[in-house]
Amino acid sequence: MTFYRIARAIVLSIMKVIFRVRVIGREHVPREGVYIVAPSHRSILDVPFTAFITKRRIRFMAKEELFHNAIGRWLFTKLGAIKVVRETTDRRALRASQQALEDGEPLAIFPEGTRRTGPVIEDLYDGVAYLAIKLAVPVIPVGVGGSEQILPSGKVFPRMHKVAVVVGPPITPPPRHDTVTKRSEIAALTERLTRDLQAVFDDAMARVETAPASAAERREHV
Fold this sequence. Notes:
Elements: H1 2-19, E1 22-24, E2 36-39, H2 46-50, E3 59-63, H3 70-78, E4 82-84, H4 91-102, E5 107-108, H5 127-135, E6 139-145, H6 147-150, E7 164-167, H7 183-207, H8 215-220
Parallel strand pairs: 1-7, 2-5, 2-6, 3-4, 3-5
Antiparallel strand pairs: 6-7
């Protein structure tokens, strides 16, 4: 925990100055209790930019490839990252995520699964909704605008660009009336998250002046 706080303080202090990071809607983040953060994902830098929303440690899910070498394995383990095998139903990662929430730690899952390009939020994975309903945990959508312009997928050297991180109101999952998490409820919550995440992503992008104002206009450009 101490390592995370020190690393967060150093990295975020540097990034705030270089990229002129603005956080909007921080009041939507609970000071206590657990929640799932669901950020947009256009760059590997979305991880530290998302960490701006709270001083508490957030347990991020991280792709297995980041743990393949000794340095990466040491670093991401110290930061509390949860290893996940992408493109699979990784039950070990799901159990670890559930345990983190049950231990009272906020969790971050990129519902798009991997880095995407462009302005549209779509085809979200349902893991966020499943955990939220199963554990009765709110979901907080976070739009990160500007990260794709700084360091898009496939690029090594970052470019200068301002960043806006917009936090939306928490999405409260429906109450459970039995021990079975219904697929229809998961689908409905995933659809709601898609809409809300698109809204905060639109807002974040508009604040850094990188795209048309609305999601409808953006789809015409895809």
